[in-house]
Prior knowledge:
Elements: E1 4-7, H1 14-32, H2 37-59, E2 63-67, E3 71-74, E4 77-80, E5 84-92, E6 95-102, E7 108-112, H3 120-136
Antiparallel strand pairs: 1-2, 2-3, 3-4, 5-6, 6-7
Amino acid sequence: xxxxxxxxxxxxxxxxxxxxxxxxxxxxxxxxxxxxxxxxxxxxxxxxxxxxxxxxxxxxxxxxxxxxxxxxxxxxxxxxxxxxxxxxxxxxxxxxxxxxxxxxxxxxxxxxxxxxxxxxxxxxxxxxxxxxxxxxxxxxxxxxxxxxxxxxx
Length: 153
């Protein structure tokens, strides 16, 4: 089974790491001004945990999209390839997004492109097109005419 995973841009989470470092800085200032030991300890533990969480999420951002042979999973919503009728770019209030329209009435799955690294977007669009064509049995027309020996009916 072929699975392709797309993760969020790690840069979106640098703020978590920065917040942890700011708390550690405040801890150092509180210690320098002679704050009670319990305050310094609490700030130190809090800042350390937030900084570690920030490092973790920057190193391993959340999965936003998983492409499998039989289905696509966007933010935890799993849809079969044959249930998708159309894929296209749309403009939303948060910028460009990929819209996956399904056979279910009034059901469109949106994937904001700003969540992905810019280098991933063209590859994702090509992969989506290829997998949808495969699922629906489409082939890309190469510009040649059909064999004249087999007339159309």
